[in-house]
Amino acid sequence: MLQEESDLALIIAQIVQKLKGSNLYTQLERQAWASLQRPEIKLESLKEDIKEFFKISGWEKKLQNAVYSELSVFPLPSHPAAPPEHLKEPLVYMRKAQVLINLRNPNYENGDSHSFRTHLGLIQVPLKVKDIPELKEFFVELGLTAGQLGVDDSTQVPPELFENEHVRIGQKVLSEQDSAAAQQYIRQGSPTALRAELWALILNISSQPEDILYYEQLKTNVIQHDLLVDSLIYKDVKLTASNDDYYFVFEDYLYQVLLCFSRDTSVLGHFAYSSASPPKSYIRGKLGLEEYAVFYPPNGVIPFHGFSMYVAPLCFLYHEPSKLYQIFREMYVRFFFRLHSISSHPSGIVSLCLLFETLLQTYLPQLFYHLREIGAQPLRISFKWMVRAFSGYLATDQLLLLWDRILGYNSLEILAVLAAAVFAFRAVNLMEVTSLAAAEAVLADLSTLKVMPLLQIFLFATVT
Amino acid sequence: MNTLMDVLHHRPGWVEVKDEGEWDFYWCDVSWLRENFDHTYMDEHVRISHFRNHYELTRKNYMVKNLKRFRKQLEREAGKLEAAKCDFFPKTFEMPCEYHLFVEEFRKNPGITWIMKPVARSQGKGIFLFRRLKDIMDWKKDTRSSDDQKDDIPVESYVAQRYIENPYLIGGRKFDLRVYVLVMSYMPLRAWLYRDGFARFSNTRFTLNSIDDQYVHLTNVAVQKTSPDYHPKKGCKWMLQRFRQYLASKHGPEAVETLFSDMDNIFIRSLQSVQKVIISDKHCFELYGYDILIDQDLKPWLLEVNASPSLTASSQEDYELKTSLLEDTLHVVDMEARLTGREKRVGGFDLMWNDGPVSREDGAHDLSGMGNFVTNTHLGCVNDRKKQLRQLFRSLQGQKKTPN
């Protein structure tokens, strides 16, 4: 008990430390000073009165949301003497694997198998992943007895049954401006009209003048200096989003966001809890001298093919460039970075791959075996879906319903579950194919899939 | 990808004939119609895909005339408010005969942009924008009849129209909507609205002011640095369902309901304005392509009506849309005489007007509150046409079997 209390005290201290440097702190201070003018603030009970004032005026809610936001990326409790690299990534071989050639636990022998079935898939790393009973518990709000947007808002279902009430609750959550409540609410999906605001609330994004100014500053940087990564961004946008049937319209917005993103040094903050480290470069002629090291690109993130697809769906929701930018940046430092860095985190891409393979092998062993035999390892097909969080593969409205749940559960595991559910859905056709190319063809077009029914069937209605 | 031929060839029991005298159904060109309609005898069951004088609706100068006349009539009969519902067509003047009226309007609104369009050409040919009278004075001189045009062959007519300077933009781009309306007869007026359609985006950014002045630089840079293996855009179209969803997430469902209800208003009033003028031959039906522009206040404007909307497909998705559209058109035309005539929906078509407004079955109330017609239309909504057709034809078969 004592240990827990001191752990908690430590966490509180760390968060307070973090928030003290934030804009919210300055605002709260200013508000507190201003509140002294108010008649209800009495000198004898100053502390309680100010606290009461904060509660009534909504500032306490803002503080709550900020704390909640910090907690969502807070690293797990760790050994007090652990150095920072250990905090980023506890497993040694994962740390070493940052320059990836092969990923194996050197301590783990694949030979002893009396308790561990031979894993048929590509990921031979013993990370802990959830099984279906655990997933059912984790995703309990997606169960068959609860209403869902994406299922219970279809045209055949009368809106009085679920949709109307859900919309009403959503409006209430928004008026309360409570991040935690919004996150709980959105597990059952967000109504189209409320989604933009709900996501902003959950990600704790409010467009303050300072944020807009910061974004304008980034834009100035874009105009003044070229970066080599800009070419990568242009190429990526032209090859992916511009070729997409629906996202081609937002080409300009994508440039606005991504070019600024590369120059945003505040993104470096996420490396504190990411297993990756930003690439370093050295001022010309000073190779190896730490004083002349710079992070390159300034935000430490090198874009890759398909990167712009993280931004494209957001263009549907946010039309004000600075708000779009903030939302994307927060989505990146909370979720997307895990999809392309090697870590042992349950939402990291390695765990997701393993989760996918484990689910498939456990519940569709025949299919898995068949695909492996014909040289079509399932992960080879599903990997690209998960790395892009299904952006560009699903219809936009379905994608947004999926990303609702990513925000709601603060986890990317749903991507692996969906990937497995897709395979389960097309299992009959897949059993008949005889080559990797044919398997790819069966799974080439996901644009007609309805995400929520698929997930529900896989998690809650499949006989295991 | 010839959608029409594919659909006609695949229709069960239909055979293509080459001989002029043998056909029961003809999807004809307007030029054939002009030359042959008046001296072609058609049996009662025969159907042809155009009305004799469709140009009353589809040629810009005639349409404007008809609309103006209809508006005046409405004002007389029902007052200014009702007549204002016809204000979906940008102010247009026929050239050269209304030149003086145009100049008057021009002087009242200095600095706005006008657009000059030829009445009969399509695909943007011959169109230009202008802001100064000087620009068209010069043009007038150029096209003024020379000596060998003193006879009665008319000089090509133009219309001068007020250019809509604040179009609704998506991603900084301008777009217009293509909507399909099927008219089975004018007297009485029976019109169907197809659920699918698309938004066509322009390749260039409308104005760069819409994003940011500094950003002009950024996009130029982006364009200049285009990588060599850049693949051209797959298509510049959004299906209407996507467009409707986008607007709903941005403006909320009520605003979208109002917009689409205003568009219904455009379709119905434009057809009503030519109802008495068009020769309503029972052999004729017509599939129109309406071009609609939305402005930043979410007001729809009618750009033009096409009597022969393009049926060539630019992509797989486009092919499916157009073949479905044509199949459902043929279902409604009903050469096979399967329908009872009381249907309100056939595949992707909803009956929009049947000598009067057609109400939605569920009695949905008028969300827009604008007093527009709450018609049985579902533009941009889910189009589960295959399922609906299956159910429809199954029940029709059932009805045939039971003795009356």
Automatic annotation (TrEMBL), chain A:
SUPFAM superfamilies: Ypt/Rab-GAP domain of gyp1p (SSF47923)
InterPro entries from the UniProt entry: Rab-GAP-TBC_dom (IPR000195), Rab-GAP_TBC_sf (IPR035969), TBC1D19 (IPR042507)
Transmembrane segments: none
Domain Rab-GAP TBC span(s) in chain numbering: 189-410
Pfam families, per the entry: RabGAP-TBC
PANTHER family cross-referenced by the UniProt entry: TBC1 DOMAIN FAMILY MEMBER 19
Protein name: TBC1 domain family member 19 isoform X3
Organism: Balaenoptera acutorostrata
Lineage: Eukaryota, Metazoa, Chordata, Craniata, Vertebrata
UniProtKB/TrEMBL annotation, chain B:
GO biological process: microtubule cytoskeleton organization
Domain of life: Eukaryota
Keyword tags: ATP-binding, Ligase, Nucleotide-binding
PROSITE patterns associated with the record: TTL (PS51221)
A Pfam family: TTL
Keyword flag Endoplasmic reticulum: no
GO function terms (MF aspect): ATP binding; tubulin binding; tubulin-glutamic acid ligase activity
One Gene Ontology term, aspect cellular component: ciliary basal body
InterPro entries linked to this entry: TTL/TTLL_fam
Family: Belongs to the tubulin--tyrosine ligase family.
Protein name: Tubulin--tyrosine ligase-like protein 9
Origin organism lineage: Eukaryota, Metazoa, Chordata, Craniata, Vertebrata
